[in-house]
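Hi L.,

You mentioned the student needs an example of a multi-chain input paired with its predicted structure. This one should do, with 317 residues in total across all chains.
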Amino acid sequence: MRQDDFDRILSKDQEIIPSSGFVVSVMDAVRRETEAPPPIPFPWKRALPGLSAAGFALVSVFVVGITPFIGETATQPLPAKFPSAFALIFQGWNAVGASWIVLALVLSFASVKLSRRFVSDKARWSEIQ
Amino acid sequence: MSAAEDQAAVEKVLDGDTSSFEDIVRRWQGPLVNLAYRFCRDRGRAEEMAQEAFLRAYRSLAQWRREAAFSTWLFALATNLYCSELRRIPVRTVGLDDIVEPRDCRAIDGGLEEEDQGRVVRRAVFALPPKYREAFILFYFHEMDVASTAQSLALPEGTVKARLSRGREMLRSKLSKQLGEPLLRKEA
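Structure written out for the whole complex:
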């Protein structure tokens, strides 16, 4: 088949005529949209103290939960059976404070996800409105 | 309604005259419903999708930059919506490999008659992967040129050409048995 054949065969597609009530239906939807109250903005001022407190609590829980673990692992000698390659990685991990880096990354990721969710909820809410 | 009238209607709507949007809907209802129909092959769904496209256009009228024609902007918006809609709830299609049409015994040359050829090719287009199918629908079914297809899909023209070419190759390889021989014979 050549391109001309496709052109010839596919250009014979049928046309449909919109139903008689289509314009009225669209305009009704447009008027509903116009008359609907504006979307309620997210109450950042009210939510900010709560979000800050939640963030602080989250960080505190992580710090309280991880600090003893970091202290222990840093001071405890590694078991003799621990494979040497893993031991090196583990020591290197502790030396650069990778746990803190991971913690920071997790918190950043959670914060980005949370804010994206707020934005999408807000968009969905404004569409419903 | 000319491009200038489109622009005038848009200005009126932006100034708060909602009823002027009706002129736009009247002017573009046919092309938008037909475009939707070419994507989904279901009249009811096509009208729903076109209505949503008009609503979205109404909400975003202020974002239309006058550099491009209103129709270009409207088609790009509608195409984007239709593609997303069909990715969300796809049209029921058969795989390219499953398109097997019995030869029509009425056709003297052993191939399918023209009406059947069209039906088989359209079914095959709907069995193409979405990125090829979307380019085909705009270029062939909606008779856009490559530039308009590229604008509607927000793609470079070269990419559209490549997708059309690759899509044609896929169709050719699948349909050559049903359609190729008689057509080639006619050309000889």
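You could point out the following to them. Residues 19-128 of chain A form one domain. Chain A has five helices and no strands.

Best wishes,
N.
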